[in-house]
Amino acid sequence: MVVTAPDESYRRYCLESVASAYDIVLITTEEPSWEVPFIQDCVIVPDPTDQTALSAAGRALAARHDVAGVVTWTEWYLVPVARLARQLGLPTVAPAVMRGCRNKAAARALFAHHGVPSAESVSVRTCQEAQAAADRIGYPVVLKPASHAGAIGVLRADNRDQLIAAYRAAERTAGLGKESTSVLVEEYLDGPEISVECATYRGATTVIAVNRKKLGPPPHFDQLAHSVDATDPLLDIVAPAARAAISALGITDGISHVEMRLVDGRPRLIEVNARLAGDMIGHLVRLATGIDLARAAADIACDRAPDLTPTKSSAASIRLLYPTTSGTLTHLSYDGPRPTWLDRLHFQCSPGDPLLLPADGGNLFTARIGYVITTGRTGWQARTRAERAARAVTAVLDRAYSTRTAA
């Protein structure tokens, strides 16, 4: 049983991979379209965070099919899906553990208790409390909603004036949270950001790959690119911290996307997402290592040992495409070659669609044009090729000039 939002651009590969090994019954928010070839049955639940509605849908599907496990790769559904699995008597991490993963304040407390290197963090409810916390921690600080995702509502503040604006932005997003509506004021970790992709089965965690990120300029934390190299030397450096973070949160089974920064070369935890990474990172891992994380997630959900044996040793990169200005898209084209190393070129919007950048109040859902994915022998080569492919994309917006994707 898969519970997911209908995100063809970034999750089709997951459903396709799981369908190659399992019959799938689906719970999603709207009538299936592209999902149809991969599923056997479906129940539509407009809001899967509504536990009563989700549980009723799950019971209906379980009455019609012999369900072996339930999985989601949608961040907002982690806690309700864990509860559903428990109600159906299926393998699952305890819902309380998932609540801890979803609540960044609770996660920080667990990291501190277990000695996992993290960032100083204070949960606040007012702008005055935020100012006091920032004065104590020291600028720059990061403000973020305690239970959201995708870096939405996350801003850096270098002084008191910026902090007020950042608090208001984080507060608006925090109000949508299910597990917590508070805002966090955190120490800014100055160093390159990475993620560590892990699989845990019956309490044993395998660290599979390191993903190197490229972020946009402050105060936002827009993710512009990711790259995975099967032989990345960082793997041995960050693996102990990733395992410690997963253990501290009590995660015994599942795929984890562990975000951290390297401060003076040492890992400091940002957060643990207890699900398959977004932005096609799981696909990058498969291109680079041959390990199928989507299939592994399904195997673990059914209490089957996943196959985590590498069959490749190469690299892959994704370049996420943004315009340099907000506006209405009037033209979009790719004018470059299509070599074998260009794995995917995907546009997720069309002429006539509005594009609103984070600087203008938007987010990753309102700003992205699409992405290119490239392969290479090394991470550097894959990244260089991705940048080359991105430069061949032209987006024209209604402000009457042609733009190239943001650097």
Structural class: alpha+beta
Taken together, the total number of domains comes to 4
Strand content: 25-35%
CATH topology of the largest domain: D-amino Acid Aminotransferase, Chain A, domain 1
Report on this structure.
- Helix 3 packs antiparallel against helix 4 and helix 6 crosses helix 7.
- This protein has 12 helices and 19 strands.
- The protein starts with a strand and ends with a strand.
- The C terminus is likely disordered.
- It has 4 domains: 91 residues, Rossmann fold; 68 residues, Dna Ligase, domain 1, CATH 3.30.1490; 120 residues, D-amino Acid Aminotransferase, Chain A, domain 1; 89 residues, ATP-grasp fold, B domain (D-amino Acid Aminotransferase, Chain A, domain 1, 2-Layer Sandwich).
- It is globular, with a radius of gyration of 21 Å.
- The strands form 4 sheets. The chain has an 8-stranded antiparallel β-sheet with strand order 12-11-8-9-10-13-17-15, sandwiched between helices.
- The protein is α+β, with helices and mostly antiparallel strands and 407 residues long.
- A hairpin with a 7-residue loop joins strand 9 and strand 10.
Can you give me a brief rundown of this structure?
The protein is of the alpha+beta class and 407 residues long. It has twelve helices and 19 strands. It has helices at residues 8-19, 51-64, 78-87, 95-102, 104-113, 127-137, 160-174, 234-249, 281-289, 293-301, 364-367, 379-391; strands spanning 2-3, 25-28, 41-44, 121-124, 141-145, 155-157, 183-187, 193-201, 204-215, 223-229, 254-263, 266-273, 315-321, 327-334, 342-347, 354-355, 370-376, 393-397, 402-404.
